[in-house]
Write a structure and sequence with these properties.
The chain is α+β, with helices and mostly antiparallel strands. The chain has one domain: Electron Transport, Fmn-binding Protein, Chain A (Pnp Oxidase, Chain A). It is about 20% helix and about 40% strand. The chain has 5 helices and 10 strands; from the N terminus they run βαββββαβααβββαβ. It has helices at about 15-20, 65-70, 85-90, 100-105, 145, and strands at about 5, 25-30, 35-40, 45-50, 50-60, 75-80, 110, 115-120, 125-135, 155-165. Strands 1, 2, 3, 4, 5, 6, 9 and 10 form an 8-stranded antiparallel beta sheet that branches. A two-stranded antiparallel sheet has the order 7-8. Strand 7 and strand 8 (about 115-120) form a beta hairpin. The radius of gyration is 15 Å and the shape is globular.
Amino acid sequence: MPAFKEINPSEIKENPFDLIGKDWALVTCGSKDKFNTMTVSWGGVGIMWGRPVAFTFIRPQRYTFEFTENNEYYTMSFFDERYRGALSFCGSKSGRDYNKPKETGLTSVFTDDGVPYFEEAKLVLVCKKLYAQFLNEECVVDADKVKKWYDNDYHKMYVGEIVKVLKK
């Protein structure tokens, strides 16, 4: 398997709308001792407070939520289409009940600081949390467009500085 090389966030050439909304990503958080991952198809990348950032959204009932709350870093790993089944599994099964890497055949690896990601990914964003806040109904401007997504269980938004980009 090709090795990762570190690139500058400005060197990412892939379309973020495709990466996140179409291809999906695994958001992973925790440590070498214990971590969890989940599939996301909401989020984005950009500039905030003069820094390159990635943001994602996690519902509080998801197992990954407690890892994201209790750790300083998270990763967003993006894959080729051949890993769609693994991403589907990680988005529909809980890490409380399954060892997702074992079940999917994905290989967990860790940054020098111990932040988890996956060897099979084609692109990995290592993010340090800068901001986190629950979305709330009072701030929704066009309720008709978003009400189908919620039953009083709004996501928490995490904005993380992209501190490292790994690409194959």
